[in-house]
Amino acid sequence: MSGDHEHSESCGCGCGCGDTPPLDTELARRWREADDGETVCPCSGVDKGAVKAAIAAGAYTAPLVKAMTGVGREAGCRQRRECQADLEVLVALYAAGTVNFC
């Protein structure tokens, strides 16, 4: 546990605990069906395959995947909110069952 607070369903500390988006949405369905070359963040040039590779390497939350891949971190990024939603869905889809310290 990091920080001096209890992690809960949605603690808001950025650790990702409890922040899992629903996986029965149209967005989740589209990402499930997309191939690994599908672009997640056009400004950073990151695709689904890179996000999955970061998750496989241990990035089990959206902030960790962002740090490893650069999704939404380019100066002048025009689509940050869209990238964030896509990233959160991808993490929920592919990080299930990974280590969670919360």
A few lines on this structure:
It contains four helices and two strands, in the order αββααα. It has a domain at 26-94: Arc Repressor Mutant, subunit A.
List key phrases describing it.
2 strands; two-stranded antiparallel ribbon; globular; Arc Repressor Mutant, subunit A; mainly alpha; 102 residues
Explain what this protein looks like in three dimensions.
- 39% of the residues lie in helices and 5% in strands.
- The longest helix is centred in the last third of the chain and has 15 residues.
- The N terminus is likely disordered.
- The protein is globular.
- The protein is mainly alpha-helical.
- It has a two-stranded antiparallel ribbon with strand order 1-2.
- The protein is built from 4 helices and 2 strands; from the N terminus they run H-E-E-H-H-H.
- The protein has a domain of 69 residues: Arc Repressor Mutant, subunit A (Orthogonal Bundle), CATH 1.10.10.
Distance between the termini: 6 Å
Instruction: Walk across the major sheet and give the strand order.
Output: 1-2
- Which outline best applies? globular
**Name of the CATH architecture of the domain at 26-94:** Orthogonal Bundle
Beta content comes to: under 5%
* Total count of strands: 2
Rg on CA atoms, Å = 13 Å
Poorly predicted regions are 1-16
Structural class of the secondary elements? Answer: mainly alpha
Number of helices: 4
Which percent bin holds the helix content? 25-40%
What CATH first level of the domain at 26-94 would be assigned? Answer: Mainly Alpha
Biggest β-sheet, characterized?
A: 2 strands, antiparallel
Mean pLDDT across all residues, rounded?
Answer: 78
What is the chain-wise order of helices and strands? HEEHHH
CATH topology of the domain at 26-94: Arc Repressor Mutant, subunit A
